[in-house]
Specification:
The complex is a heterodimer of chains A (about 350) and B (about 325). Chain A has about 350 residues and is an alpha/beta fold. Chain A is built from ten helices and twelve strands. Chain A has helices at about 35-45, 50-70, 90-95, 130-140, 150-155, 165-185, 200, 205-215, 290-300, 320-345, and strands at about 25, 100, 105-110, 110-115, 115-120, 145-150, 160, 190-195, 225-230, 250, 275, 310. In chain A, the strands form three sheets. In chain A, strands 1-12-11-10-9-8-6 form a seven-stranded parallel β-sheet. In chain A, strands 2-5-7 form a three-stranded mixed β-sheet, with no helix packed on it. In chain A, strands 3-4 form a two-stranded antiparallel sheet. In chain A, strand 3 (about 105-110) and strand 4 (about 110-115) form a beta hairpin. The longest helix of chain A has 23 residues, at about 320-345. The radius of gyration of chain B is 19 Å and the shape is globular. Helix content of chain B is about 40%, strand content about 15%. In chain B, helix 1 (about 15-25) packs antiparallel against helix 2, helix 6 runs parallel beside helix 8 (about 200-205) and helix 11 (about 280-290) packs across helix 12 (about 315-335). Chain B has about 325 residues and is an alpha/beta fold. Classes of the chains: A alpha/beta (about 350), B alpha/beta (about 325). The interface of A and B includes residues 161, 232 and 257 of A. Chain A: Keywords: Metal-binding, Methyltransferase, Transferase, Zinc. Chain A: Its cofactor is Zn(2+). Chain A: GO terms for molecular function: 5-methyltetrahydropteroyltriglutamate-homocysteine S-methyltransferase activity; zinc ion binding. Chain A: It holds the Pfam family Meth_synt_2.
Chain lengths: ~350, ~325
């Protein structure tokens, strides 16, 4: 069953004036500054005079800039935009013994990723995200959220040449994720997001994801907020099963198709907190604050404001940077306006008060 | 004696240089995907890529050469997403994969477009009449399932309109030896009892537009018995089965129970896993199927990947292409 989600209060800023608090966050990825790509390319060229240390400096600078950019947009919790990560499976596969790479494969249009192959038993070697978290925490004034690609997605979005089935691979990977989360928590992380977009592709496997989550949260204290992000799926096929997952918050994309599926979550009663996507990440048109406020109200059909988090549908990395920034800034403005309207009693709540 | 023919269902991975070049030329957003009116620079990159994959197939010794469908950004939905009377909606998931395409919303009559014919004309020129050309299209049912109808208003009428549209596309094709109709939706979302009788009719419509051998290829698992029985009512040459999928016993059961055309396409190599099967393994898989359907004297058995191979990195795809070709040749050596 869902964990006790009382842990959201720690993310409420001290200077938050409104009585209501809609936690604003992002899913994770953000457009990289163009100079970061340039430095990365130059570092790969042997005669360009750019060393590995130059690239590391560029990563640090980019992480600083984007963490600040998130704070400037007004978010309550921030990430570094995943500046050090190229892709959500690749990044981890490079750090997990047992994986190998054979080249890029298509996701959609001209968006590709280096889908890795699992060729032997997966193992934990060096920490995956510890340095990223410690660096971002030092830079940030707001709490830092840590997105981690979930074990089911790591299994499912790899070519499995070594395990009997994907469940066996996912469980082995879940144990590795648990080890990583323990280290992050020891370093001070309090907001962990497990990204499982693959669940949307194969919703019949929800029990595998549930078991993997049990392994991930094993031994993780209750004050650590555990979020599960899923996107672009037929949610009637995984709801209400997700109510049984050991999570504090379920983050879902629904803006992309105009909340066609929002009613799926109305019955039976939604158990975890809801983190709702309120801006589309595949459309460069910037939603107005008024549009986003209307989107936020869709979330209030499912949970009361005390249990509503607002975020973009998914990572915003494919948008032009200025568009990504403005979408997030508008998202925050909309949340603050909705909070004021809630304080003023101007919004009729459909979902039951807690 | 059985003839073994190596082929593929088309929809190849783009060569890696083309992935970057076309990404740079076209962009990475929804609105940047292929529209049928691409610039000369984009067309030229596709021409080069097409020529490359045709050469690769010839070098690998594949018997039926496909265009590769490298322009099909929306995979099997492509023939609609480039159509004038189709609007493209949001991006939606492509079957149960980590792949997406633009939802084609049909808003007007599906008039002939000639888009696929132009690709095949270019391929035929490269082949110069030497090697058999294989055309590839989505099956009418799958295309109707991948699309949203905002014009015809009735499921059966929409299916018939899609079939007429595909037939008009086929009519414009250059000479081709085989036509693969890829129909995975018959497996993943079988037609209900109301729509099922329309399936053979729709396939007949498309198949009758060509003199080529028509293969209705199914994958992502086994067909339900009832769907298979309906499919056999249609007039076409070969049915294609997924012999890699975990439920392949069901496929054997269907073929044994309901009969099977003497020509079959067998999806032997896994189009979704990098583990490269040896020619011997592929041959064993073919034998596994044919020997369990003793009532049929197989005339032509097409050796193919089960799914479209665009899911694979190009290096592994090329290895699989070689293995398929070798698997067909292996048998020739044995029988000579």
């Amino acid at each position: 069953m869902a964990r006790d989600a009382d842990n959201r209060a720690q993310f409420r800023p001290d200077d938050h004036d409104a009585e209501h608090f809609l936690l604003t966050t992002v899913v994770g990825s953000y457009p990289k500054p163009s100079w970061l790509s340039t430095v990365r390319d130059l570092e790969r060229e042997s005669d360009a005079g750019f060393a590995e240390s130059d690239l590391q400096e560029a990563y640090d600078d980019a992480a600083r800039v984007i963490t600040r950019e998130h704070e400037r947009a007004g978010l309550d919790t921030v990430v570094d935009g995943e500046m050090r990560r190229e892709e959500m499976v690749e990044y981890f596969a490079h750090r997990i013994p047992g994986y190998e790479f054979n080249g890029p494969v298509k996701v959609w249009g001209h968006n590709y990723f280096n889908k890795p192959s699992v060729v032997s038993t997966v193992e934990y070697d060096e920490p995956w995200l510890l340095e990223e978290f410690e660096f971002t925490s030092d830079v940030a004034e707001k709490p830092v959220k840590v997105p981690i690609t979930g074990p089911y997605t790591l299994a499912r979005w790899s070519f499995n040449e070594a395990y009997e089935d994907e469940a066996a691979l996912a469980y082995d990977l879940a144990d590795l994720v648990n080890e990583e989360v323990e280290r992050l928590v020891a370093a001070g992380a309090r907001y962990i997001q497990i990204d499982e977009p693959a669940l949307a592709t194969t919703p019949d496997d929800h029990a595998i994801v549930g078991e993997a989550l049990e392994r991930i949260v094993d031994g993780i204290p209750d004050d650590v907020r555990i979020c599960l992000h899923v996107c672009y799926g037929d949610y009637s096929r995984i709801y209400p099963e997700i109510n049984d997952f050991p999570i504090d918050e379920f983050d879902v994309e629904l803006c992309n198709d105009g909340y066609e599926q929002i009613d799926v979550f109305r019955s039976p009663e939604f158990q975890p907190d809801l983190a709702l996507g309120v801006v589309d990440v595949h459309d460069a048109e910037i939603e107005t604050v008024a549009e986003i406020k209307s989107n936020i109200r869709e979330g209030l059909k499912i949970v009361p404001p005390e249990r509503l988090t607002v975020s973009p549908d998914c990572g915003v990395k494919l948008l032009p940077r200025e568009v990504a920034y403005q979408k997030i800034a508008n998202l925050v403005s909309a949340a603050r306006e909705v909070e004021a309207e809630l304080d003023a009693g101007e919004i009729d709540l459909v979902a039951p008060e807690p | 004696m059985t003839e073994y023919v190596s082929t593929t269902p088309g929809l190849f991975p783009l060569p890696d240089w083309a992935k970057s070049k076309l990404g740079d030329l076209k962009g990475h957003q929804k609105g940047d995907l292929i529209g049928g009116d691409e610039s000369a620079a984009i067309a030229s990159a596709y021409d080069r890529a097409r020529s490359e994959v045709v050469d690769e197939q010839r070098d690998a010794g594949v018997d039926c050469i496909v265009e590769g469908q490298l322009r099909w950004d929306d995979m099997l939905a492509h023939p609609l997403t480039v159509h004038d009377n189709v609007d493209t909606g949001g991006i939606v998931r492509y079957y149960d994969n980590n792949n997406f395409y633009r939802d084609p919303r049909v808003v007007g009559d599906l008039t002939p477009s000639g888009d696929v014919a132009a690709e095949l004309d270019a391929t035929a020129e490269l082949l110069d009449g030497e090697t058999p050309l294989q055309a590839v299209l989505p099956g009418p049912y799958s295309l109707s399932e991948l699309a949203t109808d905002e014009h015809y208003g009735d499921e059966a009428e929409f299916l018939a309109a899609i079939a007429d549209f595909l037939a008009s596309e086929v009519a414009a094709f250059p000479d081709h030896e085989t036509l693969f109709l890829l129909d995975p939706s018959l497996v993943t979302s079988p037609p209900d009892d109301d729509l099922a009788p329309g399936i053979p009719e729709a396939i007949d419509t498309v198949a009758s537009a060509t003199d080529a051998d028509v293969v209705v290829h199914t994958y992502f698992g086994a067909l339900e018995e009832k769907t298979y029985a309906y499919l056999l009512d249609a007039e076409f040459d070969a049915v294609g089965f997924d012999v890699v999928a975990a439920d392949r016993e069901q496929t054997v059961y269907n073929a044994s129970e309901y009969g099977c055309p003497s020509d079959v396409a067998l999806g032997l190599a896994d189009g979704q896993n990098t583990l490269v099967e040896s020619a011997e393994t592929l041959r064993e898989r073919a034998t596994w199927f044919t020997e369990q359907v003793p009532s049929t004297d197989f005339e032509t058995v097409y050796f193919t990947t089960n799914t479209e191979p665009f899911y694979l990195p190009v290096t592994k795809f090329r290895e699989k292409l070689g293995a398929l070709s070798a698997a067909a040749d292996l048998d020739r050596e044995v029988t000579v």
